[in-house]
Amino acid sequence: MNIKKQLQNLYLYELISGFQIVDVVWVVFLLQRGFSIAQVGIAEGVFHMVSMCCEIPSGMVADLIGRKRTLVWSGLVSAAGALCMILTDAFPMILVAMGLNALSYNLVSGSREALTYDSLLETGIQEDYLRVSATQEQLYLAVFAAANLFSVVTVSLGYEKGYLISMVQGLCCSIVAFRLWEPRRENVKEKETWGRILKKHVIESGRFVVTHREAARRMLVSGVAAAGYYIVFMLLQQHFVEKGVHARWVGIPLLLVSFGGMLGASLGEKTGQVKIKSLLFVGGVLEGLLIVFSGMQALPGCILAAGLAHGISEMLAIRIGDENQKIFSGEVRATMVSVESMVYSVVMVAFSPVIGWLAEYFSISWAFGLLGMFVGIVVCLLSLKERKETFQIDRRFSD
Question: In angstroms, rounded to a whole number, what is the distance separating the alpha carbons of residues 249 and 150?
């Protein structure tokens, strides 16, 4: 394998997949089409319900048919979801589109991380994963930030043309995925039946959770921290409009918020020497407080708080991902990453509709206050259970 070319294609995939111009303003588009903010919360809940149900199966598919093929399918499913958003204003079809969009993310989740780590492992440089994953996240967030800026044009174009661009973006992701090299395919036992393979993955997943409770707890920390920020990002679109920002300019403050995520991704690469327990505890306290302050009436303070909350969430996710990758088995690596993503989806399913309802019937600031307290308390309590000693890789899960 030419690892330099492989990394170039992986980085190119991040650049294209990060150009989510509709994801920046999808809430605005739904509100403009006559849907309520409560319906927006329901749509987000459906997104994460599908994500929760399909997360682990998609990881199993990636481990079985290959991570490259799974990434190709992800782009095609994403394009199909965008098409559904164009075809009708019926709310049930909107929910179908949200489900397809969720499935496309499921197919990427785990596949991308497993493909990256196993590519480095095959060439003997797996210790570079923290740096490479941080670079991938920085590239994704940089393009996503540019998409925030482009939202000025997206809102002017309207949802139909916006989702048409999203369709093209999904197809381009599939094309780039075709260029990737699939490492470790020789480990897949083609003579095994689907039943045996699924049984193996279920057993391996359950065994991992039971025997590596610290890693499972870190998955929960990552899910709560990520969900807390994303709910803030989702509702900030409406919050900015309520504070006088025109819908077509809402991408500007969101762009500034995204800079915080890029900063956090950069810092995540440099936390390798920091004790994980201390990092999680301090990160939990700060993110919780910053989510609360994200509901401030003053826009500059709101933007700063949301940006810093985004940065802390990214920093924690990158460090936790690096720690857990060290103990995942190559044969079920995508499935294990999918378990972590499923935790995030479970939290989102539980809290998206609730926070959306609180924001509509009380205020967004009040909803952010409760959300921030929940995130801070949960992350801090979980971090206190972190053992001082580092993990030793269980031989049953090692390659």
Answer: 9
Reported as a single tens digit per residue, the pLDDT across 366-385 is 889 999 999 999 999 888 87
Nearest to 330 by CA among 164, 183, 174, 158: 183
The whole-model pTM stands at: 0.70
Give which of 335, 388, 326 is closest to 58, Cα–Cα. Answer: 335
Condensed to tens digits (0 to 9), the pLDDT of residues 1-29 reads 788 899 999 999 999 998 888 887 888 88
For each of the domains in the chain, give its residue range(s) and CATH number, in order of start. 3-179+194-384 (1.20.1250.20)
- Long-range CB contacts (< 8 A, 24+ apart) of 199-208? 201/60, 201/63, 201/332, 201/335, 204/329, 204/331, 204/332, 204/335, 204/397, 205/56, 205/332, 205/335, 205/336, 205/339, 207/396, 207/397, 208/328, 208/332, 208/336, 208/339, 208/397
Instruction: Please give the mean pLDDT across all residues of the chain.
Output: 82
